[in-house]
Amino acid sequence: MRRKWDAKTKARIVLAGLTGACVNDLCRAHDLRPGQYYKWRGHFLENSYRVFEKPPTEQSDAEMAAENEELKKLVGELTLELTSGKPVR
């Protein structure tokens, strides 16, 4: 039967191994195969740089309102253009 490991548990196990705990003892304690541990460790190390990336900035309410108004204006112009057959711009 396969177990599902949550990300926090995986990270805790990998960090324990990286900070000096014996990998064989860790694997034995968690009923984990060493190959699986090393797979997790590789994935952890490959993606660890993402911790230092800036999260995407969220738009403020004022910015979203301004963008919304601009889009409404554009939709209105395009609707007039389609119904009249003449470019509005």
UniProtKB/TrEMBL annotation:
Cross-referenced Pfam families: HTH_Tnp_1
GO terms for biological process, alphabetical: DNA transposition
Top-rank lineage group of the source organism: Bacteria
InterPro entries: Transposase_8, Trp_repressor/repl_initiator
Molecular-function GO term, any one: sequence-specific DNA binding
Protein name per the record: Transposase
